[in-house]
Design goal:
The protein has 126 residues and is of the alpha/beta class. The chain is built from 4 helices and 4 strands, in the order E-E-H-H-H-E-H-E. Helix 1 packs antiparallel against helix 2. It is globular, with a radius of gyration of 14 Å.
């Protein structure tokens, strides 16, 4: 299984073998794919960032409140359970464009620090 990241507006461009999985705390209406809220930022983290736009505080809070509470092996097991039918890979989805500050980039870094490949889908075109 390959892990990618992407954003909601790009889901329509993902190949049919990539299962999009929302990692947000609010998913768009009509979303027909899995939701994995364990990786979603909390309302508190989002509220603080919206007030201050302090990216370093967001990174610290997200790593402290979310990532440090998770074990990557457990997350990988959870994500593997979503794979069915013809899906072979997954893409962790949120709202921001690839060049915008976003928690999915923090998730990708966390995954890569544990020696698992994770990249933005289509990053060769960015």
């Amino acid at each position: 299984m390959q892990i990618y990241t992407s954003y909601f507006a790009n889901v329509k461009n993902l190949p049919p073998n990539i299962l999009p999985i929302s990692i947000t705390n609010i998913t768009p209406q009509g979303w027909k794919y899995p939701i994995y809220q364990k990786l979603a930022p909390s309302d508190k983290i989002l509220k603080n960032w919206k007030q201050t736009h302090a990216n370093l505080d967001y990174i610290f809070d997200y790593e402290d409140e979310i990532l440090s509470q998770l074990k990557l092996n457990d997350v990988m097991d959870d994500l593997l359970h979503f794979l069915k039918d013809d899906y072979t890979d997954i893409s962790l989805i949120c709202y921001e464009k690839p060049t915008d500050f976003c928690h999915r980039h923090l998730v990708a870094d966390w995954v890569k620090q544990n020696h698992i490949q994770c990249k933005e889908w289509g990053e060769e075109y960015i």
